[in-house]
Recover the amino acids of this structure.
């Protein structure tokens, strides 16, 4: 069991490291809200992060904000629940219409690992702490 948990932790850390690298190179990340942003900051992801649901933003407001960054690609890291998936689908469609490539691979990889255990990005930091605790107590 400890080996499986350790592998899970290593896979998540690898994804977060790659995510941080892309973000540091200037690729914005779209998350839903402020707590998601705070979680990514706690996980050492310090580049541009755009909030999709803060301050009553519409999807067009979010796309416009991304356009202003002149980014050609953007990472979608929305929640793992139904509403997050729907928002991602709508954002993806609008971004593609503006010739901005939405990257969903990080979301897919994380969802494949933690999708049964957490429902949102903000739960990721606490999930990592729980994993470390379980590994340490074994």
């Amino acid at each position: 069991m400890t080996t499986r948990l350790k592998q899970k932790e290593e896979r998540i850390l690898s994804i977060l490291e790659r995510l941080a690298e892309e973000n540091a190179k200037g690729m914005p990340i779209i998350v839903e809200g402020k707590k998601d942003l705070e979680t990514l900051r706690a996980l050492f992801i310090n580049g541009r992060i755009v909030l999709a649901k803060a301050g009553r933003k519409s999807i067009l407001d979010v796309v416009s904000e991304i356009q202003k960054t002149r980014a050609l690609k953007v990472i979608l890291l929305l929640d793992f629940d139904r509403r997050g998936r729907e928002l991602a689908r709508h954002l993806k469609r609008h971004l593609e219409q503006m010739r901005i490539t939405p990257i969903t691979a990080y979301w897919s990889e994380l969802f494949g690992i933690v999708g049964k255990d957490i429902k949102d990005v903000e739960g990721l930091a606490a999930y990592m702490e729980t994993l470390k605790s379980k590994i340490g107590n074994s």
About this structure: The chain has a mean pLDDT of 94. The beta strands are 29-31, 49-51, 73-76, 101-103.
